[in-house]
Amino acid sequence: MKIAIATNNKNKLKEIRAVLGGHFDAMYSLEDLGIEIDIAETGSTLTENALIKARTIRDIAGIPALADDSGLMVDALDGAPGVYSARYAGEEHDDAKNNALLVKNLQGKDRTAHFCSVIALSYPDGKELTAEGRVEGHILDAPRGNNGFGYDPLFFCDEIGKTFAEANPDEKNSVSHRGRALRNMLELLENQQNEV
Q1: Which of 122, 124, 144, 195 has a 20 to 30 Å separation from 51 between CA atoms?
Q2: pLDDT tens digit sequence for 42-100
Q3: Distance (Å, rounded) from C-alpha 77 to C-alpha 75?
């Protein structure tokens, strides 16, 4: 089976292919398919946004489409930035500005947080699967590490004892929210295959 991955983010593509690559005959990025689109993420939850993206690309490409939506949920900020994680400091999706605003908004506050990711797979026949993954941690005062993207330099993962930006890709994938959501999706796909 061929599927479209509803992203051009090279880091996400790498993570998705690393976990699900063996399950599909071919996985195409939006760039591979010549699709240039900015999908409005109008959902109020990560699941809604992941499904919006998956359905949109499925309809354009005519093949099953997989999409994710991820967010950083900070307890002291009532779950913010949440669904607005990529555009927390503005529509330009600027990681440095998002990180700076987060540090500013957390001055003197509890820093416990978790990353959450929802993976959605939408088939042309209307069948859909969703899977979630989560990882706990807390937000540092200053960035540490040079790997990763987004909030990775500020997110200290309790399980590995370092920020996601200090972790190598294998360390991060072993505990990351997206990695867990992808492994949960793989389990759903394998169960589905066994039922056939």
Answers
A1: 195
A2: 999 999 999 999 999 999 999 999 999 999 999 999 999 999 998 999 988 899 999 99
A3: 5
**94 in active site:** no
- Of 101, 100, 161, nearest in space to 135 by CA: 161
Q: Which of 14, 53, 6, 7 is nearest to 148 (CA)?
A: 14
Q: What would the pLDDT profile of 130-145 be if each residue is shown by its tens digit?
A: 999 999 999 999 999 9
Identify the active-site residue in 32, 69, 110, 170: 69
Q: How far is residue 16's CA from residue 10's CA, in Å, rounded to a whole number?
A: 10
Q: How many helices and strands (H and E) does the chain possess? A: 5, 7
Token pair 């540090």: residue: 103
Give backbone dihedrals phi and psi of 177, rounded to 5 degrees, phi first.
Answer: -60, -45
Residue type, 138: H
